[in-house]
Amino acid sequence: MNMKSIVFAAILSTAFGTAMAENVTKPTVVMTAEDGNYSAGFEATHSTGLFTDTFTFSYSGLPGDAFGFAANVKNKKSDINFTSATLNGQALDLTNFGDNSTVYIDLPVSGLLTLVISGESFGKASYAGTIDVTSAVPEPTTYGMLLGGLGVMGFLARRRKA
Q1: Which residues of 136-162 are buried (b: 16+ CB within 10 A; e: fewer)?
Q2: Is there a domain that residue 2 lies in?
């Protein structure tokens, strides 16, 4: 086998190999809180090829439910198809239908959240999303109703003893 054949084989293998888009790993985002609900946004842009993106979020609330989505809408020159998505290792639902690709987030969570999204980009394409965490902390009015109910129960118990 001569050197020309080896060089030609190497050129062919790189020319027809699978294209890889750049993977995105974002630094940890501290989620902002408003009325006990924590929220953060995320986004990524890719050139043509396969990708795996990692987003990390932290919040200081109690365990709660995470919900949100990530979406891409196809345009004339680019598109993204999601192949998998996980939040803290648990698989998320996703769809690739027509011009839309969407990841749906709906899981109980606590502490640090790691969102991993994999897919394939066709042309320079972007997706964006949001993740929200709602803690199971009662509202102040709920505490007021609880205390009022306990007061009524105590009053009735005392009245029965008399």
Answers
A1: eeeeeeeeeeeeeeeeeeeeeeeeeee
A2: no
pLDDT higher than threshold 60 for residue 8: no
pLDDT-based confidence at residue 19 (cuts at 50, 70, 90): low
Q: How far apart are CA 9 and CA 13, in angstroms?
A: 6
Q: What is the mean pLDDT of residues 148-159?
A: 71
3 within some domain: no
Instruction: Provide CB contacts within 8 A for 68, sequence distance 6+.
Output: 105, 129, 130, 131, 132
Q: Please report whether residue 10 resides in a domain.
A: no
Q: What is the mean pLDDT of the chain?
A: 81
